Amino acid sequence: MSTPPDPAPSAPSWPYCGHGAEDATDPVGCPGINVPGQSACLAHLNSTDRDAYLTGLTPGTDVDHRGTRFTAPLLNALLQALKDPTTGKPHFGTARFEGAEFAEEAGFHRARFSGTSHFGGARFSSTARFGGADFTHDAGFEGTQFTSTAWFDGARFCGGALFSHAQFAEAAWFGGVRFAGTARFGGTWFQDDARFGGAHFLGSVGFTSARFSSTAWFEGARFAADARFEGALFSGIAGFGGARFTDDVWFGGARFAGSAGFGGARFSGTARFGAADFSDEARFDEARFASTAWFDGARFAGDARFHRTQFAEDARFGGARFSGIAGFDLARFRGGALFSQAQFTDVARFDTALFSGTARFEGTQFAGDAWFHLTQFSGDALFPQARFTAMSWLGPVVCAKTVELSGALFEVPVTLEIAAREVRCERTRWESTATLRLRYATMDLSHAVLFFPVAVNAHPVPFTHGGTMADESLLAGSQHGVRVASVHGVDAAYLVLTDTDLSDCLFSGSFHLDQLRLEGRCNFAATPTGLHFRRSIWPYWWTRRRTLAEEHHWRAQTAGQSPSPTGQAPSPRHWRTGPHHPDPGRTPDPEHLAALYRQLRKAFEDSKDEPGAADFYYGEMEMRRHDLVGTPPGERGLLWGYWLTSGYGLRASRALVWLAVAMTATIALMMGLGLPDSSPKQTASGTIPAAGGRVTLAVDKEDPRLTLPTDDRFTMKRFDKSLQVVLNSVVFRSSGQDLTTWGTYTEMVSRFTEPVLLALAILAMRSRIKR
Q1: Which of 143, 280, 438, 481 could form a disulfide with 259 if both were Cys (CB 3.0 to 4.6 A apart)?
Q2: Helices (H), 698-740
Q3: CA-CA distance, 742 to 739, in Å (whole number)?
């Protein structure tokens, strides 16, 4: 099947030469515009008329040679006719070369175009030399075809430089060019190297949808106004190292098939790289972004290097995809850093980076290692819903505010080293073992999901990495120690807490608290200090013991206590109010608190810490005593007595005080009512038979009587006898002393109560020293 012939060219809009026209094959012929006063173009004019025309030209004359085909001799003759004798260079006024064809080298170097110049649709079949040319007004090269090398180096465009949809088949040299007006290269195709190194763009620049099939070199270029590269295609190396962008720059949707180098570039305006596609290495090392940097949805198939890059305002990488190594080492984010929904397939390196604003990594996926060694966050570091697939170590990081890990997923064993004011792990999923080494932080583990053991440790000294100590100046003035705020909803069977402060920790709603492991020194809230007065009359105080935060909240709620002012530490003299104070419906009641104390008591007992379990047994008994629903009245009465006499068998001093009171009362009763005047004497009586035989005697003893006056009953002798009776009663022995009826019953009561009180005191002491 034969190929259809090319369509016949259409006639131009100007009066044209028509030389060589043939009706069958070329009805138009030569499209060159007629020389004024002639019926042929300059190329087909006879030598006499051509010489006459050229002789009539002077420097600065307007010329119109649209559609004309120039050979090297013909163009040189035209340039010679327009040569300015003072400069020795051609001087054009308005120059119209639209659709012209330059069959051989076109030497316009250092030419001056004082009027508008038009080269739209022209074709340069050989080298085009415009180096050092001076375009005073607009220069139009729209759709121009440069088949060979195009030299514009050192040229000056004082008006617009319009190269839209031009084609450069070989190298295009624009090095050091000064573009004072608008520069338009939209849709331009650079099939070979495009070199704009050191170019100065004073007006707006447009490379929208331009194609760079080889190297695009903009090293050291300066863009004083907005520069647009949306949808541009860079098939080779794109070099913007050291470039200066004073105004906004757009690379949205641009595609970089080769390496892209922006190292040391300066972006004074907004830099938009949204949805840009970097198929090879992207280098932004030591670049500076003075305004917002947009990389939302960008794709980095190769390594992305932002080493020592500075972002003065927001850096937006939302939804960006990093398939290679993403290096942000020593980067400085002075505004917000937004990496929400970003994907890191390989290593993400943020070593020693500084985030001055909020850092957002919501929903970010880290498929490789994430290096945050010695990273500092002056604002919040937010990682909610983030996914860590292969990261084994995070940190050490220092955060002045909150590290948010809520909803994050850790799929492999991991160690976290974090120094921060607050660490939130609400609903965080740990699908393998994890160790959290914290400093200064208040940690919230509410509803965290633990499949393997997770240990939370308070790190005693500043973190180090590679021999360098982490700078904790961001946390100057922060409270030392690690505090756990909540384990609500957590399966505590896999949780290990070491050297943590649990004073405000919420345990309600957690599971398997009896299997919780508490290592080192874990502090709980203490009871209020100082002397208090009930109804402003009766003095009382709280015995020192470890309590749960929920008990504080319940007692503060039932007492009608006012909440502490915002930002002020609670007074140690009062119970601490809860987060839902004073709502009773959202404050745990004694029945729930008793269950919490019971489970924690078992956890201490299973770890062989009997003294530690004692306070939780006390708390359990306290809650049962105050439980008006779950504890029957009779049982509550027993608990009240148990509490009153010995503090549930845990307060030896209370039992000993009651023992001393009981003994004192017994001695007083014995001296006043129990001891007789004297020991009764025995008498024997009987009858001796007259005829002799067996004698029968009857021995009788008088009943003990007390007839002494009251003043004579309280003597040292009677005190000594009473003390012997009491001491024998304490050890559950009978004294053998004759007693009155009152004394007998008093001894019976004392032989029951006083040994019990002594036993309670011994039990309390044993509970504190048992191992």
Answers
A1: 280
A2: 710-713, 716-730
A3: 8
Place of tokens 């810490």: 609
Name 407's bridge partners.
none
The mean-pLDDT minimum among 267-281, 542-556, 650-664 falls in 650-664
Q: CA-CA distance, 655 to 141, in Å (whole number)?
A: 106
What CA–CA distance (Å, rounded) separates 522 from 67?
91
Residue 467 pLDDT > 60: yes
Paired tokens of 257: 């098939």
**How far is the C-alpha of 231 from the C-alpha of 229, rounded, in Å?**
6
Distances (CA, A) of 34 to 10, 97, 224: 17, 13, 42
Coil, helix or strand for 586? Answer: helix
Quote the percentage of the chain above a pLDDT of 70: 93
Listed residue (199, 166, 165, 201) closest to 181, CA to CA: 201
DSSP, residue by residue, 94-112: SEE-TT-EE-S-EE-TT-E
Structure tokens at 566: 């915002």
How far apart CA 627 and CA 129 sit, in angstroms, is 99
Go through 212-250 and write b for each residue having 16 or more CB atoms within 10 A of its CB, e for each that does not.
bbbbbbbbbbbbbbbbbbbbbbbbbbbbbbbbbbbbbbb
Contact 747, 695 (CB under 8 A): no
Where do we find the tokens 């903009």? 218
Cβ burial 158-174 (10 Å sphere, 16+ → b, else e) = bbbbbbbbbbbbbbbbb
Distance between CA atoms of residues 499 and 460, nearest Å = 9
Cα angle: 598, vertex 601, 605; to 5 degrees: 135
Is residue 617 within 8 A of residue 764, CB to CB? The reply is no
- How far is 678 from 684, CA to CA, in rounded Å? 19
Place of tokens 């993400």: 348
| Three-class secondary structure assignment of 315-352 | EECCCCEECCCEECCCCEECCCEECCCCEECCCEECCC
Assign residue 746 a region: left if phi > 0, alpha if psi is -120 to 50, beta otherwise?
Answer: alpha
Q: What span, in angstroms and rounded, lies between the C-alpha atoms of 635 and 686? A: 60
Task: For residue 553, count CB atoms less than 10 angstroms from its CB and return exposed for 0-12, middle for 13-18, buried for 19 or more.
Answer: buried
Q: Which of 128, 126, 198, 115 is nearest to 163 (CA)?
A: 128
Q: What is the pLDDT of residue 770?
A: 65
CA pair distance 655, 303, nearest whole angstrom: 75
Q: Which of 280, 238, 269, 233 is nearest to 253 (CA)?
A: 233
Q: Is 765 helix (H, G, I), strand (E, B) or coil?
A: helix
φ/ψ of 420, rounded to 5, equals -155, 165
**Which residue's entry shows tokens 């120059």?**
95
DSSP 374: T
Identity of the amino acid at 339: F
Alpha carbon distance 136, 125 (integer Å): 26
What are the CA-CA distances from residue 760 to residues 494, 652, 656, 754, 771 (Å)? 37, 7, 9, 10, 19
Q: What is the pLDDT of residues 573-626, one digit of tens each?
A: 888 888 878 888 888 889 999 999 999 999 988 888 888 888 899 999 999 999
**160-to-118, 141, 369, 713 alpha-carbon distances in Å:** 11, 10, 50, 128
d(CA 344, CA 338): 14
Is the pLDDT at 248 greater than 90, yes or no? Answer: yes
pTM (whole model) above 0.90:
no
* Angstrom distance (rounded) from CA 486 to CA 234: 53
The DSSP code for 378 is S
CA dist., res. 674 & res. 534, Å (int): 39
Angle CA 523–527–528, to nearest 5: 125
Structure tokens at 79: 């340039």
pLDDT over threshold 60, residue 683 = no
The candidate with the shortest Cα–Cα distance to 601, out of 650, 544, 655, is 650
Of 454, 431, 432, the closest CA to residue 443 belongs to 454
